[in-house]
Amino acid sequence: MAGRKKVKLAYIMNDASRKTSYNKRKNGFIKKMHEINILCDVPVCGIMYSPYESQPVVWPNLLETQRLITKFRSMPEAERNKKMVTHEMFLKQRIEKEQEKLNKLKKENREKQIRMLMNQCLTGRPLIGLDLNDLNDMECMIKECVTEIVAQIKSRKEENLAERNQTQVARTQVLAPSTDQNMHAAMETQMFDLNNMDAMQTAPWFVGDVSNQHFGYVDDQIPPL
Length: 225
Hints:
Pfam families: SRF-TF. This protein has 225 residues and is mainly alpha-helical.
């Protein structure tokens, strides 16, 4: 879908075209006032004089328009003129905005020009033929590039250091439970050995006192001399 053609803001010389444009924009203007009034709950009124109509067009109606005008005039002058813009002020604001755009474009073009000079110098062009302004601008751009590179290197080092610290912390958290489990298992083994030794010490049979159901004690099996 093709975009709408941008209309040049200038007086329309042809009478028929001017009248057609007026009717279209009048209806669009009334539609916008209605939308602001409904969507934003803002009281709006409009009065349009034109050579194509015997009476001015008043929206939404004459009574509501008179009420809003009376309310507006009863406001303090400072409050009433707070957001007012004269034709001169409007043109001044537009000029300032266009001047800002122009300055931005000039800066971008100058940066592109200096980059081209830097590339030419890297390919063998001597610096002798450059004037002082070009050299100063080139120096400023080189310093900015170096500062940006140093900042990127520092940021990359900090990121790598943070990743290493996170990895070490994760490894410590993984190894800590296994170490605790090993210590717990060793303690259980040690307790088991101590319990076995106590059981052996309290048992009723030892070497030399081993009883036998059929032969009695071991010492009784030795025949008398």
